[in-house]
Amino acid sequence: MAIHEPERIWWNPLSKDERVWVGVALIWMLVSFIFMPIYHLVGSQNPPSTTYSVKADDFDKLVEGMVSKYKVGEENGFPVVHPDPSEPVFIRASMWQWYPILELEKGKTYKVHLSSIDIQHGFSLQPINMNLMALPGYDYVIKLTPTSAGEFHIVCNEYCGVGHHTMVGKMYVK
Amino acid sequence: MANTDFRICSLSGLKISRSSELLIRWNLIAAFATLAVGGLMGLLVLLTRWPSVHLLPVEHYYRFLTAHGLDALLAWIIFFEIALVHFTSAVLLGTRSYVTWLGWVAFALMLIGGALINTIVVLGRADVMFTSYVPLKADPLYYLGVILFAVGALIGFIHFFINIVLSKRDGGFKRSLPLGSFGLAAASIIGILTLAHGAAIFLPTLLWSMDVIPTIDPSAYRLVFWGLGHSSQQINVCAMVAVWYMTSAFVVGGKPVNEKLSRTAFVLYILFINLASEHHLLVDPVLSSWHKVVNTSYMMHLAVLASMIHAFAIPASMEVALRKQGYTRGLFEWLKKAPWGNPAFSGVIISIVLFGFLGGITGVIFGTEQFAIIRHNTFAITGHFHGTVVAGTTIAFMAFTYLLIPFIFKRELIWKGFAAIQPWLYGAGVATLSIGMMSAGSFGVPRRHYDITFSGAPFSFTFDPAIDMFMSMMGVGGVLAAAGGLLFILIAFGSIIFGKKLEQQ
Fold it and tell me: Which of B175, B199, B215 is the last residue of a domain?
């Protein structure tokens, strides 16, 4: 019993039921294991992994550079930016805003640089529900090709203080 | 120590020494008390997240959420596990707990650490959540509290090995440990490795919070923290599985069908779970995709294989034992005639089923690369781990409490009728809560979020109206679970204080 010492010899062969069960489970696990790298190669829903190290001040300058060059309007005090797809695009997270509002073109591929200038934030693009971490000190590069036009929102889903629930940003695809 | 220090428990036949008995009792009392506090915090947090109630103001929500995580996930479970350490390394072997003073040092450190954490959090000086991701900063005393608690737990797990070495010397066992003790040995090994990660990250963070170290890299913090945060859940899994085996043995006389298989499965946990913790970082910058893919596929699935083995071996042990008692008609007479009215038995079955189907399966799914990006930090994750640590570990520990109260406290349970329904009530509540959370999360509802209507935000955003139903499901389930939890606390403390005394030698 589980509460008594086992018999002298407990390294016994498995019965048929056990062999079948463990065999099926092992095969299932191996399939899951193999499928993950395979899907990484054939799938199109992989989290990106290009990262640069960046200082908050430098990232800020890059963001402001893009905003002054490509600003096309303003909404609730946030600049609306329509960047050139051939140039890098920036999204800055801070307590408690996503800055600026990007206006992207459907079908074009952008390199979106995501970083935080203070603490950790969670980039959560709704309603398509795409979630990535924004860490201070790191520039996370997302190759993004919008496939549907419309209005999207960025919600913060990593706790970042009392204003966390007010941290909502916006993004347009035209 | 003299032999008169031992008594024989007439219900279980266990030979119990006074030293182990006291250590187990006090660790259990601390566990029940922290569960009560953690559960109350959980109820308040639940009533805030339920949009139609939205109870607490914003600061209190995050404060109580931090306390809920620390009390319910850390304190309740680890105090109970240290009680299990003494139960399996001394009581099951029929020897005493050695170096008793060390056991009390561990207990005192955990108690002081836990009290310090709770005080600092309730005072509002550590609104940083369970994860305390840098550079979000708490009062240095908060990190000190975590370190004290962790050092206490570390000593507790080390105590397991001191006990079994000396027990073997004194003839407590000759060749191998009983399977229940073997499971706790696995838990203790993982515990020591895990708490080493805790020291590796919380010591520098403490120094950083005191301005001794200028910065802590947020990415490195996340990597090492999850070596503590997720690996420590494997301590819980090992302890829970050991409880499943032991309950099967105590209640129906179940015998592991194959010791080799069950023991190998515990070893798989030890070997493979640590690296799999990297699934927390799947959508983080810094680490390469292949690094993440290898660690979270290969390593994780071998740990899952271990759970698959236990999922077969434990029901099999029960079936064999019940068939031996004469319930042999048809395929399922043994199942029909099983002691469903015994909360220790029903609790363990509920724990096995919910852990597997709610917590385990969703864990495997959310831990894959392509799913992490559509589930990371959403409410689905909260639903997943309420399926593992609440519907799995907590219910198993509650079930085992119904055995430990007569064995260790020498008291009969009070309110036997209520005790018989408690696991069902609690299990149904947690399952509903967990499914509600996971469904809402699949629509993008974030975890740890005060207001999903985003009042005060510069832009308004509304989730799919389907989430209203799922959030209500969470609310109703949570209230049921809170009622089941309150019933457990009342039965546990009521039995310890007012239960009929069981006379033993």
Answer: B175
Please report the pLDDT score of residue A124 as a whole number.
97
A155 vs B253, B369, B461: nearest CB: B461
Q: Which residues of A touch B92 (CB under 8 A)?
A: 3
pLDDT the model gives residue B2: 46
- B493 lies in some domain: yes
Angle at B178 between CA B174 and CA B181, to 5 degrees: 115
A133 contacts in chain B (CB < 8 Å): 283-285, 376
- Among residues B142, B175, B208, which one ends one of the domains? B175
- State the pLDDT at residue B245: 94
Half-sphere exposure for A117 (CA within 13 Å, toward CB): 18
- Decide if A36 contacts B368 (C-beta within 8 A): yes
CA angle B476, B479, B482 (to 5 degrees): 150
- Residue B279 forms part of a structural domain: no
Query: Is pTM, for the whole model, over 0.90?
Result: yes
Domain presence at residue B269: no
A158, A121 Cβ separation under 8 angstroms: yes
CB contact under 8 A, A131 and B374: yes
Q: Which of A40, A155, A169 minimises the CB distance to B289?
A: A40
DSSP string, B179-224: HHHHHHHHHHHHHHHHHHHHHHHHHHHHHHHTTSSS---HHHHHHH
Nearest residue of B to residue A131, measured between CA atoms: B373
B125 touches chain A (CB under 8 A): no
CA pair distance A64, B159, nearest whole angstrom:
58
- On average, the pLDDT of chain B sits at 93
Does residue A5 form part of some domain? no
Half-sphere exposure at residue B55, Cβ-oriented, CA atoms within 13 angstroms: 15
Distance CA B394, CA B422 (A): 13
**Residues whose CB is less than 8 angstroms from the CB of residue A118 and which lie 6 or more positions away in sequence, other chains included:** A56, A94, A95, A136, B135
In a domain, A127, yes or no: yes
Residues B356/B79/B146/B303 CA torsion (nearest 10 deg): -30
Looking at the domain assignment, is residue B484 inside a domain? yes
Residue A41 lies in a domain: no
**Would residue A22 count as lying in a domain?**
no
Quickly list H helices, chain A.
16-42, 56-70
Domain of residue A166: give its range: 50-173
The predicted-structure confidence for B314-358, as pLDDT tens digits, reads as follows 999 999 999 999 998 988 999 999 999 999 999 999 999 999 999
Exposure letters B78-109 (e unless 16+ CB within 10 A, then b): bbbbbbbbbbbbbbbbbbbbbebeebebbbeb
Domain that holds residue B133: 18-175
| Total count of domains within chain B | 2
Residue that the structure tokens 């009581």 belong to: B91
B167 touches chain A (CB under 8 A): no
**Chain-chain contact of A135 with B285 (C-beta, under 8 angstroms):** yes
Test A156 with B283 for CB contact under 8 angstroms. Answer: no
Scanning the structure block, which residue is given the tokens 């009342």? B490
Peptide bond into B465 cis (omega under 30): no
CATH code (residue A55): 2.60.40.420
